[in-house]
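Input chain follows. Return C-alpha cells only.
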Amino acid sequence: MPATSTRTRRHALRTLAVTLLAVPSLLTATGAAQAQTAQETVSYSPTGTWSAQVTTSIPSSGTTTFTFLTDGTMGNDTDTWYCTGRTTFSYDIKHPHKDSSGTVDGSVVGHQDAVLSRNDHWTSHGVSNIVDLSGNVVSSFTVDVVATRTS
C-alpha cells in the first residue's frame, strides 16, 4: 500500500475517532443544558394558606398561619408580600406590640426573605424590630420560618 494512502487512512481514522469521542460529550452537554433550562423555568407562588413553625432569637417558638393573597397582601391592612424570583419571595409584617399589661406600646416590624423549595414548602429568614410609639427601635431579633401549604 502506498505511503500517501496509509497517511490518508490514518488521518480518516483519527478524524472518525475524534468525532466518535466528541458526540457523547456533545449529547451530555446538550442534555445538561436542557435540564438546566427546565430547572430555570420552575416557578412557584406562595399564594395560599400555610402552616408555619416560627423560631426567634429571643428565644421563642410557636406555630402560626400565613395567608398570601394574589394582590400582594396577607389578609390584613399591614402585611405585604412580593416575588423576588421564580422560587423566592419576601414579605413584610407589622403588628402591634403590647407590654406585660396588654397595652399597645409600639409595633413589631419585620422583613423576611423566603425560598420555595417545592410548591408546598418554603423557609424564610429575617429580622424583626420592636419599635416604640415614637418610632425608635427598642430591640431586634432574628426570625426563622418553616412552612407547609395547607390550601
